[in-house]
Amino acid sequence: MKIILFTVIVSLCVAFVLGLLLGLFKKIFAVEVDPKVQAIADVLSGGNCGGCGFAGCAAFAQAVVDGTAPANGCIAGGPSVAAKVGEIMGVSVSATKKVAILACKGNNDCAAPRGTYNGIKTCAAASQSINGTKLCSFGCIGYGDCVEACQFGALFMGKDGLPVIDYEKCVGCGKCSRTCPKKLFVIVDGDKKGSVALCSNRSDNKTVIKKNCSFGCIKCGICVKKCPEKCLELVNGIPVVDYEKCTSCGECIKACPDKVLDLVQNVIA
């Protein structure tokens, strides 16, 4: 019994001394933190999504104070967070809410499958092993890696095999875009207006494109010819819009034989 009591007393004494030493070392080696860093970190989204280009919210907050990141750099936070960060830093800032758009319409009904895939059910694995589950090697694989990656619950898999974006929750952080092995997500301003191509097939084989996906862009160029503002051009086989000129007239959308184009404002409505 005496041995047990002695052991307990010694243990408590050792713990007390170690506690004092740790407190002392913490005080001696403490690093001064600018109060602005903590203030900025407190108003950020806390998602550590990486949309700002930094490892996390704490790193971004430090970068803003250091002058290596803009006050409106928190993509996930949008205009409201940008305003709060600007107030802390004493600067006037503006920001626009960002959102993601899926540049693929190759659902289960219109995109032909490559075959039966028996590997690991992730987009990354299917892409590396057989270049995707569909004959269109540019199309959505459909295993939902983007859904798993979204930290804001803004994505879910639809019954047609394509991810669906909840624009009430989407903050445009770009995590889905960075995760997708086919790079099918485009990040745009939430107030963007104009035409957008919902296809990422860059092949120039029109016959194969049409056979593999009924919504695939066949590079006919009719949209370019029909555009009254001359704001469309084919880049690597994909219609690209000059939004400085686009008036959302919809002529390219009506002309497209495969319904590849749509207005951004309609997609994210």
Structural write-up:
There is one protein chain. Strand 6 (232-235) and strand 7 (238-241) form a beta hairpin. The chain is an alpha+beta fold and 269 residues long. The protein is built from eleven helices and eight strands.
Going across the major beta sheet, what is the strand order? 1-4
According to DSSP, the number of beta strands is 8
Assess the beta-strand content as a share of residues. Answer: 5-15%
- Mean pLDDT equals 91
Q: What would you call the shape?
A: elongated
Give the N-to-C terminal Cα separation.
75 Å
Roughly how many Å is the radius of gyration?
26 Å
Structure classification: alpha+beta
Tally of individual helices: 11
User: Could you list the spans in which at least 5 consecutive residues all have pLDDT below 50?
Assistant: none
Helical coverage, percent range: 25-40%
Pattern of helices and strands:
HHHHEHHEEHEEHHEEHEH
Main sheet makeup: 2 strands, antiparallel
Summarize it.
By secondary structure, the protein is α+β, with helices and mostly antiparallel strands.
Write the layout of secondary structure elements.
Elements: H1 2-28, H2 35-43, H3 57-66, H4 78-89, E1 98-102, H5 123-130, H6 145-149, E2 155-157, E3 163-165, H7 175-179, E4 185-189, E5 195-197, H8 206-212, H9 222-226, E6 232-235, E7 238-241, H10 251-255, E8 261-263, H11 264-267
Antiparallel strand pairs: 1-4, 2-3, 5-8, 6-7
Helix pairs in contact: 2-3, 2-4
